[in-house]
Amino acid sequence: MAKESADVTRQRILHQCLPLFAAAGFDGVSMRQVATATGLTTAALYYHFPDKEQLFLAVVEDCFSQRVTPLMPGPKSPGDDPWAHLEAFVSAFVSLLVRVPSFQRLMQWVALDRDETRARQMTERVFEPFFLGVADLLPVTLGEEERHALTVSVMGLMVFPFETQVARQWLPGYKPPSQVSTQLVQHILKLLKAGVTG
Amino acid sequence: MAKESADVTRQRILHQCLPLFAAAGFDGVSMRQVATATGLTTAALYYHFPDKEQLFLAVVEDCFSQRVTPLMPGPKSPGDDPWAHLEAFVSAFVSLLVRVPSFQRLMQWVALDRDETRARQMTERVFEPFFLGVADLLPVTLGEEERHALTVSVMGLMVFPFETQVARQWLPGYKPPSQVSTQLVQHILKLLKAGVTG
DNA sequence: GTCTATACGTGGATAGAC
DNA sequence: GTCTATCCACGTATAGAC
To answer: Is the model's pLDDT at A1 over the cut of 80?
Structure first.
């Protein structure tokens, strides 16, 4: 491996160890595994990142900002169909969860992290803009707490089917979300528009 | 510590290390920590459980079966309000998530486990009866796949607000689920009955 | 049943050569 | 920038006494 610029190597490390952390989480991946996956030694890794935690945070932040930011919809215009923006976003986000399983798994790991500092950092840099973007897609008439609750519900309806794939695979009526993503989007929108009874 | 029967000690271990595994997951807890928490030595732990994995599985299974089984509602009668059973169950389950945070966190950790054997075991012994019980609460007219999708949605609406507590705590409109559990239940039921526009 | 003592691997991290 | 070599703490797990 010829020497390459620090920036390039750093980015390469980030991309190549993403699947590892997505699969096994922070505690489940060793620096030696990361080294093997990137074709470097642990010593070289420590040249690019001060410690394992900073490496992990960099991986998460890189993945989130690259994937989520481009998804956020533009501002609403007054004349628009109030549902059109929401449907477009739900569709795009579900599509992301299907296309990039590592992203979805990483979200799950991050949600379990109870460290105050890391949680705050993650919220500010990636979760907050995402959350507020979704909240903006909802009807303007909602109060603050109602809007918050509904935002959580919309996110849960999109994410939870992916989080529970492994556990559901032997249950009646199961199809992998990747194979029924269109139906999933329609299911969510029907529920939001009119509830169970349609 | 006087000697006690193996059964009693075993049960005590299960209860005392539940909060540890709930907080940090399988990889985040060492046998030495479990030993400290239970007032035993690691050697004594290995007298009661063959290895760490079996200990963890026993903790999960004990917690789930103790908490979830008593929650499952009885069979529906023809004359009942179709929503009453569902509301009672949602209310009881949300109440469980509030009362026993360890249970909720353990669910999250288990959902991330990708080991086929463990996943299959967990599904058969605890998740399947739960899932089918929720599915039974839904309208009889639904097709199999539609029923499955809706079951996932109902579970997601209940669980996701708890899973995302840490990340949401600084966002506008946030109140801890434990302080707004009644509103959460009403929010979920309103959504299921009639969608966003109520 | 529980202890003390310990084997032995693997973890994160660093020093210093090139 | 990347390597080889290494330190040392901590992980799981066991042997054998009581």
So the answer is: no
